[in-house]
Backbone:
């Protein structure tokens, strides 16, 4: 055992009813880091699972994908049927995981609920993610591979080909989540992406409605929109782009009238708040008080579009939880997305709550 693990056991022996937050503060480490150390001690058999901590309430639970993202950058235009010289970069991704990191950097207590392979890819994701979230609720399966997304990019940055292996998320079933029902019902917020099966989305909608826990649903791509139920009851926030909204509703979105109507239709299906993003054209957002168009925030330099949508969702959800009004929540989401577009990282490393507020004040 390392020194921190020894200190944890000493604290538990002294007071087995300390909360994780109290233990983390006494040890001078983050609560997610403490949770991962405790998870390791359980696996070692040093802790037998008795009441060593009180139940943690008011955490944000992010449910869905945690992937390895690989990008192959071609040195010359692609040629089919032969080997193409390229450089490769590796990073962590997944909508749920990205949102969890954004919210963790913004000061929230976050738990990642996913499923992965028992492989080096998951261990890399866990290492990178653990400073910002508790990964103890993610199970590594002996059978199956950690989700991965691989993109082949032309020299000008355009995508030549993309490959996604997300089969493992079929294991994110209601049965997988049921043992965590108590934590789900006492969460501050549930954020789920559509890597999860349709029956899991329906399970979370019912649980959120019965326990009055806010539920945010964030699609992953247009082909996965069929995992969203016809009835959106229980969905507090539905955040999607125009292509996803058009597919969901079976309509064309050609102008602002169509765009606003799309938001109204989503609200009519039961979502309490619906946001349809439109890239450089901004976002259309609505709730019971009506539908409003928000112009885009200008970004002088776009480094990488990866993660911008997740940054928008995170900024909006953070602002809501922080007590800001609807308009400011959308603005903070758009600001976080714009700043992420200018970053080479999927989640910008300088992000924190005070910086985000300062950036909004500078924008005004």
Residues:
């Amino acid at each position: 055992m390392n020194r921190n693990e020894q200190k944890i056991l000493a604290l538990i022996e002294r007071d087995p009813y300390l909360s994780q937050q109290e233990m983390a503060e006494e040890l001078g480490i983050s609560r997610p880091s403490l949770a991962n150390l405790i998870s390791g001690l359980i696996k070692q058999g040093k802790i037998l699972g008795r009441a060593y901590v009180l139940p943690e309430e008011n955490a944000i639970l992010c449910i869905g994908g945690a992937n390895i993202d690989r990008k192959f950058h071609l040195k010359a235009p692609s040629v089919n049927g032969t080997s193409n010289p390229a450089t490769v970069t590796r990073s962590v991704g997944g909508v749920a995981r990205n949102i969890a990191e954004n919210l963790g950097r913004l000061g929230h207590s976050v738990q990642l609920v996913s499923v992965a392979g028992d492989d080096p890819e998951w261990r890399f994701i866990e290492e990178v993610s653990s400073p910002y979230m508790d990964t103890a609720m993610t199970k590594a399966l002996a059978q199956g591979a950690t989700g991965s997304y691989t993109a082949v990019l032309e020299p000008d940055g355009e995508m030549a080909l993309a490959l996604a292996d997300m089969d493992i998320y079929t294991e994110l079933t209601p049965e997988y989540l049921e043992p965590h029902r108590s934590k789900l019902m006492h969460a501050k917020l549930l954020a789920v992406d559509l890597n999860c099966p349709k029956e899991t989305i329906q399970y979370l909608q019912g649980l959120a409605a019965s326990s009055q826990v806010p539920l945010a649903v964030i699609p992953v791509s247009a082909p996965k929109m069929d995992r969203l139920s016809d009835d959106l009851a229980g969905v507090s926030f539905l955040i999607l782009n125009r292509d996803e909204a058009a597919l969901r509703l079976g309509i064309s979105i050609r102008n602002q009238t169509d765009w606003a109507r799309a938001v109204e239709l989503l609200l009519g299906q039961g979502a309490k708040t619906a946001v349809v993003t439109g890239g450089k054209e901004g976002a259309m957002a609505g709730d019971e008080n009506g539908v409003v168009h928000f112009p885009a925030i200008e970004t002088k330099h776009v480094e990488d579009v990866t993660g911008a949508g997740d940054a928008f969702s995170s900024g909006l959800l953070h602002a809501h939880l922080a007590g800001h009004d609807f308009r400011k929540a959308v603005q903070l989401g758009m600001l976080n997305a714009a700043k992420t577009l200018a970053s080479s990282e999927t989640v910008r490393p300088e992000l924190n709550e005070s910086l985000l507020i300062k950036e909004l004040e500078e924008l005004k």
Remarks:
- The two ends are 52 Å apart (CA to CA).
- The mean pLDDT is 91.
- The chain has 13 helices and 14 strands.
- The longest strand covers residues 67-74.
